[in-house]
Design goal:
Belongs to the GlnE family. Its EC number is 2.7.7.89, 2.7.7.42. GO terms for molecular function: [glutamate-ammonia-ligase] adenylyltransferase activity; [glutamine synthetase]-adenylyl-L-tyrosine phosphorylase activity. This is Bifunctional glutamine synthetase adenylyltransferase/adenylyl-removing enzyme. Among the domains are: 153 residues, Beta Polymerase, domain 2; 146 residues, Four Helix Bundle (Hemerythrin (Met), subunit A) (Up-down Bundle); 151 residues, Four Helix Bundle (Hemerythrin (Met), subunit A) (Up-down Bundle), CATH 1.20.120.330. The protein is mainly alpha-helical. Strands 3, 4, 5, 6 and 7 form a five-stranded mixed sheet that branches. Strands 10, 11, 12, 13 and 14 form a five-stranded mixed sheet that branches. The N terminus is likely disordered. Helices cover 60% and strands 6% of the residues. The chain is built from 44 helices and 14 strands.
């Protein structure tokens, strides 16, 4: 084993970390495979990638002269600073190794102790293209190059790479020779200075190429944006710029375009996409034109971009005027009506950009990545910077410190997030240095060989039995987990502190500041939200402690919903209802999935929130079971069995119905929750709603019959059945649908028919009265309006009476209504007999008469012109609008009336099943059936979403705004795609209306 002092034993390549089979030969080439080279070998072993460094050294040995190699070898043995810098660069960056090999004198730059100042860097860049000063009258452009074309680009590239080499060498050197660490903030500032110098030289070349020797009379300022503007640039990054010109003419545009072209060829991508109107906008604008755009047209993200604007080169006086004029606009952007919507939409778009298989590896856009920090910090700056000028800084690290000093972030949290951001950015720098490429994607996290050089370049050392790679992965998980809590830490914890206690040793948000923050998070009434937070966070005892623990995360989830005000209020109401239920807060604390899903429900659906107040046990189903979400493990059949069993145990009909209501309430909460959370499709929702409705009617009917029999001391004199009509009969109920039914009875043998009918009438009246009892639950409306003779006819008829009426008097609309008749409750045999009887009416041999078809068409035309509510928009009324539910259902029913006698597969009460049968029978082309099907599903989903959001039956979609965003979200669309949701609805229903018109016009 080699001793620390007086090393004399030559270590093996393996002990030096050299894995390449040619390592020993390479050491021989360098003359290092001897005892007098042991110190150099051990220094080599400390390079981030010893093999990479050794290969580069061999290439460098071949490229330089013998005399130069003798000098390099001597310096490596005797000069710790030079040795540390050269080996660190060669072991961390393949690209910089290529530069050293290509530019054989570049190694001498590593002997310069001090890094160049910004002025020195600019001078070096300008000298590389022989740029000299311009006359003072030249519009603030003080340099014009002496060379142009490819030669200028080549000279700029070499000069810039030399400057980057010097900076990277000092940044990386502590890995090898324990030099002082160059901290991230200084690296970012120096890289920004290099970018300023580089583009100053590029602009000088552009002046030469565009103007030659002609004078320039206009003014052109280059404004740095993004990381360069904030002086926190990466080693490899796009440099975002904006151009201001006086005048903004073709000459200024050519200068700007040429500067970008030269800069992109020589240094890095120069991007002007942040200019007004983006890539479609003019390359240069006057200051007045910029201001007019920002004041009238700019979107929220454009003001966020202006937060980092800085005059970088060109006419710096004009650039300073631009920054001074646009800065106030940044600090008023949070007052814009669409501020929160724009910010949330932008965040979702950023997250959606990252492929699923890269989210853990993407340092910038992945969860817990750099963008999470930057996004939150900028949002807080824009919210509070309106009144607190200390927050008006451009650097992310400076902003975190300012937010901490101002009390907007706790001191410990601020320090932690400062450290997390430095760690992630430092890792990004090392990743980009490897090939000087613009990347944010880590190697495969399972590939230790690829991660090891990165860990060593990032100054990460082994700990205990863990090597550097294991330490890197552990630290990466820790830092990203901490950043994942960013919004909780930066937004919500200080809010709690502001309303629950005041710590004399720290500064916390005052009420006005907290209200501004809440407003920026989407709360329309921040003062009320603050009161709710105070009430929740101030609960006594263990309950209050748990609330303080979980509220930050809950508030974060609520702010992502369409209506944070309603979500917070609903959560407070729920907590008040469950004040004695210890399991509730424990569940939210221990199960993050339940917490997130419940908050999303409470902030989206008034309908579900009201149900959960009275059926809180459903919340436990939000968690996951062994086979998936528990909300889907329960089936409607299970609910029906439980409902019937519970009702049968009650002797009093009113108590029995109360029990049935309770089961129905819980089932509605389960169905609606699964629907909103995307766990059930619209067909399943409609089927489940129809099933529970039928079960309640059946339980009520059974209990009323038993009660009447007990009271009369005699058994029932007749059989009775309930026939579902409309959507209930089709098994396609929505949340706001009534239950259309017919009551049919059949006297038992030997019973007086008149007495039996009176008995059945009493049963029907009692069932309707029981179900119609006022309640806080969604109403149980039993509608008998489709009975023979309508409102003038008896509510109950015997089977024989129905047969006689339909055979002799049935009108076209009544035959049409029978197409959806289906037995849902009561005596199953009687229900089946009724259906067999009406089959001859709705599916007659030879089909319905031509006169009946004409009558249906006439009624449809009248419905179209008269039934739409006054003031309703026919394009967005989900039930009676163009291409809406009624249009599709009438079209299906017309085809059934015309062709069901010929095609038995049309004997379906479900609209969707009938559409499938119509396609099978080829009565309509498949594409037209698809249009009608999509329109029915789209309208049903939208109608259900209306009820979920508003909490009551509604058929009219609203115009653009918060409510439409909520409805779009409830219908399964992202909030920021409400306009797309509405456009999709209009497109789908418009196509369906074309089919409807064609069918009814035949």
């Amino acid at each position: 084993m080699t001793a620390i002092r007086g090393r004399s034993v030559v270590p093996s390549p393996g002990r030096l970390g050299l894995m390449e089979p040619t390592a020993r030969e390479d050491l021989d080439v360098l003359g290092w495979n001897r005892e007098d080279s042991v110190d150099v070998q051990w220094a080599l072993s400390r390079a981030p990638d010893a093999d990479l460094a050794l290969r580069a050294l061999v290439r460098l040995r071949a490229a330089v002269s013998d005399a130069d190699w003798v000098e390099i070898d001597r310096l490596l043995r005797s000069n710790r600073m030079f040795r540390g810098r050269l080996l660190a660069v060669l072991g961390a960056s393949d690209a910089l190794g290529d530069h050293l090999v290509a530019e054989t004198d570049a190694w001498r730059l590593l002997l310069i102790e001090e890094l160049p100042t910004a002025e020195q860097a600019r001078a070096e860049m300008l000298a590389s293209v022989q740029a000299g000063p311009e006359p003072e009258a030249a519009g603030g452009l003080t340099y014009r190059a002496g060379v142009s074309g490819p030669a200028a680009v080549g000279a700029l590239r070499v000069a810039y790479r030399d400057l980057v080499l010097r900076l990277a060498a000092q940044d990386l050197a502590p890995v090898v020779e324990d030099e002082p660490v160059l901290f991230l903030a200084e690296v970012g500032r120096r890289l920004s200075d290099l970018a300023d110098a580089a583009l100053t030289a590029a602009l000088a070349v552009a002046v030469r190429e565009v103007l030659g020797d002609d004078p320039l009379t206009g003014r052109l300022a280059v404004i740095a944006m993004g990381k360069c503007g904030a002086r926190e640039l990466n080693y490899v990054s796009d440099v975002d710029v904006v151009f201001v010109a006086e005048p903004a003419d073709s000459t200024s545009a050519r200068l700007a375009g040429e500067m970008m072209r030269i800069g992109s060829l020589a240094f890095f991508e120069v991007d002007a996409a942040l200019r007004p109107e983006g890539k479609r906008g003019a390359m240069t604008r006057t200051l007045d034109s910029h201001l007019a755009y920002y004041q009238r047209w700019a979107k929220t993200w454009e003001f966020q971009a202006l937060l980092k604007a800085r005059a970088m080169t060109g006419d710096l006086e004009l650039g300073a005027e631009y920054v001074a004029a646009t800065s106030p606009l940044v600090w008023s952007a949070a007052e814009r009506e669409d501020f929160v919507v724009d910010v949330q939409a932008m965040r979702r778009r950023v997250e959606a950009l990252v492929p699923e298989n890269e989210r853990e590896r993407n340092l910038k856009l992945g969860r817990g990545g750099l963008r999470d920090v930057e996004f939150a910090v900028q949002l807080m700056q824009m919210v509070h910077g309106r009144v607190d000028e200390t927050l008006r800084v451009s650097s992310t690290l400076d902003a975190i410190d300012a937010l901490t000093d101002g009390g907007y972030v706790g001191r410990t949290d601020g320090a932690n997030f400062h450290a997390s951001y430095e760690f992630l950015r430092g890792l990004e720098h090392r990743l980009q240095l490897q090939r000087l490429s613009r990347t944010h994607l880590l190697p495969d996290l399972q590939d230790a060989a690829a991660l090891r050089p990165l860990a060593r370049a990032a100054h990460i050392r082994p700990e205990g039995r863990s090597d550097a790679t294991e330490v890197l992965l552990r630290e990466l998980r820790r830092q990203r987990t901490r950043v994942r809590q960013l919004h909780e830490k930066l937004f919500y914890r200080p809010l709690l502190e502001a309303v629950t206690r005041f710590d004399a040793d720290s500064l916390y948000l005052q009420n006005q500041s907290a209200q501004r923050q809440l407003a920026a998070l989407g709360y329309a009434k921040p003062e009320r939200a603050l009161a709710h937070i105070k009430a929740l966070g101030s609960a006594r005892g263990r309950r209050g402690q748990i609330q303080m623990l979980i509220l930050p995360g809950l508030l974060q989830h609520i702010s992502d919903t369409p209506d944070p005000d309603a979500g917070l209020l609903n959560y407070r109401r729920l907590c008040d209802e469950l004040v004695d239920a210890d399991w509730f807060l424990r569940l939210l604390r221990d199960d993050g999935v339940v917490a997130e899903q419940l908050m999303h429900v409470l902030g989206t659906s008034e309908y579900i929130a009201d149900l959960l107040m009275r059926s809180p046990d459903v919340i436990a189903l939000y968690s996951s079971g062994a086979s998936g979400p528990k909300l889907c493990e329960v089936t409607s059949d299970d609910v029906v069995k439980g409902l019937i069993a519970s009702v049968r145990r009650q002797a009093d009909p009113r108590k029995a119905i109360a029990v049935a209501r309770s089961h129905r309430r819980a089932e509605l909460a389960r169905i609606a929750s699964a629907d909103l959370l995307g766990l059930m499709d619209v067909r399943e929702v409609c089927r489940a709603l129809s099933t529970v409705w039928a079960a309640v009617i059946n339980a009520a009917l059974e209990k009323v019959i038993d009660a009447m029999a007990t009271e009369a001391g005699a058994s029932a004199p007749a059989r009775i059945a309930v026939i579902g009509m409309g959507r209930l009969g089709g098994g396609e109920l929505g949340y706001g649908s009534d239950a259309d039914v017919l009551f049919v009875c059949d006297p038992l043998d030997g019973e007086d028919e008149t007495a039996a009918l009176r008995w059945a009438q009493s049963v029907a009246d009692n069932v309707r009265a029981l179900l119609g009892t006022p309640s806080a639950d969604p109403p149980l409306e039993v509608d008998v309006g489709l009975r023979p003779e309508g409102k003038n006819g008896p509510i109950v008829r015997s089977l024989a009476s129905y047969r006689a009426y339909y055979e002799q008097w049935a009108q076209a609309w009544e035959v049409q209504a029978l197409l959806r008749a289906h037995a849902v409750a009561g005596d199953p045999e009687l229900g089946l007999e009724f259906l067999h009887m009406v089959d001859a009416i709705r599916y007659p041999e030879g089909g319905v008469s031509a006169e009946a078809v004409r009558e249906i068409r006439r009624i449809k035309a009248r419905v179209d012109s008269e039934r739409l509510p006054r003031g309703a928009d026919p394009t967005t009324h989900t039930k009676l609008g163009r291409g809406g539910l009624a249009d599709v259902e009438w079209t299906v029913q017309l085809l059934q009336l015309r062709f069901a006698h010929r095609y038995p597969q049309l004997h379906r009460t479900s609209t969707l099943e009938a559409l499938a049968a119509i396609e099978e029978a080829e009565l309509l082309p498949a594409e037209q059936v698809a249009m009608l099907t999509e329109a029915w599903l789209t309208a049903t989903r939208a109608r259900n979403a209306l009820v979920l959001v508003r909490g009551k039956p509604v058929d009219q979609l609203p115009g653009p705004g918060r409510e439409l965003r909520a409805i779009a979200y409830a219908a399964g669309w992202p909030q920021d795609e409400a306009a797309e949701f509405l456009e999709h609805y209009l497109r789908v229903t418009r196509r369906a209306k074309g089919v409807v018109t064609e069918v009814f016009g035949e």
